[in-house]
Amino acid sequence: MFLLIFVLILVNSYADNKIISGELIILLIITVISFSFSFFSTGNNLRAASSFPNDHNLFFSLINSITLLFKKIIPWTFLTPIIPVTIILIPVLNKIVNNEQNSISKVFSVKPVYSLLLMPAFLFVQNFMVTWNTGTLHYGRTLNISYLIFLFLWFFNVIVILNYIKVKNSGKVFRIPMILNVLSYFTIIIFLFFSNNIKTAYSEVISGEAKRYNSEFNERYETIRNSKEEDRRIDKISNVPQVFFLYDITEDPNHIYNLWYREFFNKGSIALKKSEK
User: Fold this and answer.
1) With pLDDT > 70 as the criterion, what percentage of the chain qualifies?
2) Residue 147 contacts by C-beta under 8 Å, 6 or more apart in sequence?
3) Domain boundaries, the chain
């Protein structure tokens, strides 16, 4: 991802100034070296070879990465309230555009065509790296990172476009008609009546379920750390929020998750208490 950033920055810098920054070249070299360590690491190759039969399949990785890209960008854009939220936030984003600090204005002075390419490029690289190394698509929990990057790039692009409009209109910022603001609030209210992850996440935070889940896990960790027993049996987590992907340990001390627990806490074995039949 950083590699893509630097390439785009270099292209934009050369297009505007006909000069290539020496500092950016050094950063680009460091990024390429760091990327190589991750891409060609022996550990990743051994892990993939032993667990994922479709790893390092170029055609499979390309097709599935592109497919997943469109499968996610479209629903993230049109099946979530991101568009009405963006409309409501435009006055706030305009304040960033109007900031006179030179360092801030430069960040958003990228040509929209370049910044808009960042989103599919970033998400494709993320998809490709996972598929290339594991031969499988994203797990649900790793898609959370992709969505976070999607949100960051979405609002980055909105600010870039607002800045572009301001420059083209001789310093006049873009204003949203009042009717669109009203419709946006109305859309968000309607959206909250449907079952979705955003509604579920907020309800679990407000109800205290997320806090109880965190407290249960912290209590479990403290119990294991303070225990003198080499073979420890612990209670099952009872408060699991619906928005979480929890793959917990089992009653079998030789299960892979249990073995990871054992290694981490340096115990003889760790497992859940036997459930009553």
Assistant:
1) 81
2) 72, 76
3) 1-40, 57-194, 207-272
Joined tokens for residue 269: 């074995």
Name which of 83, 76, 74, 89 is nearest 187 in CA terms: 83
Per DSSP bridges, beta strands 231-234 and 269-272 are parallel
Nearest-angstrom CA–CA distance, 18 and 221: 57
Cβ neighbors of 183 (< 8 A, separation 6 or more) are 84
What backbone phi and psi angles, to 5 degrees, belong to 272?
Answer: -75, 155
Alpha-carbon distance of 87 to 147, in angstroms, equals: 19
What are the tens digits of pLDDT across the range 224-237? 999 888 999 999 98
Q: Give ∠ CA 36-110-104 in degrees, rounded to 5.
A: 95
Cα(108)–Cα(121) distance, integer angstroms: 18
DSSP assigned state of 253: T
Q: Is the pTM of this model over 0.85?
A: no
Tokens standing for residue 38:
């991750």
| Cα of 257 vs its chain's centroid, Å | 24
| Separation between Cα atoms, residue 184 and residue 4, nearest integer Å | 34
